Known about the structure:
The structure holds two protein chains of two kinds. By secondary structure, chain A is an alpha/beta fold. Helix content of chain A is 37%, strand content 20%.
Amino acid sequence: MAVKSYIDAIREAMDLALEKDENVLIFGEDVGENGGVFRATDGLQAKYGEERVFNTPLAESGIGGLAIGLTTQNYRPIMEIQFFGFVFEVMDSIAGQMARNRFRFNATRQMPIVVRSPYGGGTKTPEMHADNLEGMVAQIPGIRVVMPANPADAKGLLLSSIASNDPVIFLENLHLYRSLKGEVPDGFYTTPLDTAAIARAGSDVSIISYGGGVPVALKAAEELEKNNVSAEVLDLRTVSPLDIEAIGKTVEKTGRVVIVQEAQRMAGIGANVMSEISERFVLNLKAPIGRVAAPDSVYPFAQAENDWMIKADDVVNKVMEIVEYD
Amino acid sequence: MSDQIKINQKILDFNTQLQEQDSFFPVLSVLDNQGKIIDKEALKRAELSDEDLVNIIKRMLLSRQLDIRSIKLAKQGRFGFFAPTAGQEASQMASSYAFNDDDWLMPGYRDIPEIIVKGWPIWKAILWSRGHVLGNEFVTEDGKEINAWMPQIIIGAQYVEAAGIALGLKKRGKNAVAYAYTGDGGTSQGDFYEGINFAGAYKANAVFFIQNNGYAISTPRSLQTAAVHLAAKGWAAGIPSVVVDGNDPIAMYLVSKEARAWAVSGNGPVLIETLTNRLEPHSTAGDDPLRYRKQDDIDSWWQKEPLIRMRNFMTEKGIWSLELENAYIDEVNTLIDEQIKIADNVEKQKVSNFIKNTLEIPGQAMNEQIAKFESEGK
Lengths: 326, 378
Ligand SMILES: Cc1ncc(C[n+]2csc(CCOP(=O)(O)OP(=O)(O)O)c2C)c(N)n1
Ligand SMILES: [Mg+2]
């Protein structure tokens, strides 16, 4: 165990995967010598060679097609999309091709691909660099969408994603890359896909979140503690498919729910969680389900980011409203 | 041997074919590295008056000062995202001098100076960089619409859209063209091929520039494609395609002027690859060129940068001097200082406005959000 940053944990996972399985390849724009624009792959080309860690020409669609094709030769590609806002260029490879292949081939072919990509706001990037587009990709059948919220999970979930025979979109929170540090177990380990985790236990209310929303929820939970409200924080970790059992358990425990997402309100994961709760656990609820999300505009210009993004205070206020409801 | 036998042998000789590809694209150049004229005929053909030459060097100097100041301000945290332009002044400013107000500019994120010389106030460019919505209003100081769109972040997108503008101009019978800029990396995108292909298929009024500055962030030009010249990609679209010394302002102007004339007369688009170099980091967002290229290489390109040759050429001609240059640089810096002040004093932008700007007729949830943010003064 050692304290590591979120991005160091991600790099370590790739390092271990390259070491363990010679079929693992890493490619994308600037991932080679430069180690990626955030240094997520720093040193990996030097260690494993250009045959296994390499730059691509500047074309996301090409990167996606390359990954799909390489699986026929039993490679396990980790492809990087430099920013998730550029996923639109590779949407056919992802949604039209890799997500459908297992189904199309009557489960006789597998797509062991990981699409790694940074997302999320708070770092004053130019346009198209900070969008939360998980709602859009979580609507694609045939692909898993994983969004770790801490360094230990980032490492374990990435190793599971690489081992998965299903394609995985692995979304890395840009803001957390260097700002979030935490204990990370040494060596190789996997964290199961499709299971949520209790990030903080509590009894009065359940705050359900994922990815960059989790640190916000945890901060709110600390504040709430001061108001004598005991908040449980459930970190979904994988947003597609959802761990419905874990959602049910926390709802049964507290009967009050606030869902927190960095994405715009209209953009799906929160809505999906609310639907599952309404369908399955409505009788456990003591109050309407609350939701904290960004407003339904296009991701804002950098200077207004702070006003636009969700904050711990928003979560505290919403939780108080739900807790006081009777 | 019958002719067909020879033809067949030639077709099947892949090695020779590859070698020949290189010779299809000689480089257009008029001035050498030091500004000595190497082609008098071409210089005459450019039809540049002394006044034009002064205008071009001033635009190049404006661009260089903006670059220097932007990088400095970015280091102090007073600027946002900026993609340095030093070394590309001929490729950007001498090329754009061949177009006029009626022409439509489709720029990439590195093409800030081309928009500024079209009338985009510098304070708006600063706001664009910082991430303020007012930066994205493309009107001149006196309220005239500028025929340009915002610097495109999505690499290649401006090329397909330029094809659409070009077709629209043609359909409307306008005496104008669309001109678009991308980089060497940009030529790998599907949008690049689709843009030149569509414009070619419709013989639309477009001029496409590839600013081959050697790198796409850290990725060298050699990794983008096996093609020896990026201009070769234009052949597949059936359009005139040329390579030009992108650090030679006269060659840049000449080729741009002739490409515009060709496109505006209904002949279809032209593709121009400019050989230049990025002398500075990719952007102000933390790129370190020494991770992927040698200082020697950067230094060697500083010897070939376009201001040296333009300055020498014009001084030799007796129409430029260091005094004139310094006076103009002072003028530019005063202007930039004023513009920074304007940018510093604009009103804070409001989230409620962003929501209003997202749809002409907002939905109920959006209206509730607008009301909430307005009540908080945001
Ligand atoms: C579709 C898309 N993919 C990736 C990026 C990230 N990116 C920004 S600039 C850049 C390199 C561009 O290189 P080039 O086209 O040569 O232009 P230059 O920056 O050298 O002017 C990359 C990969 C982007 N902006 N858009
Ligand atoms: Mg380039």
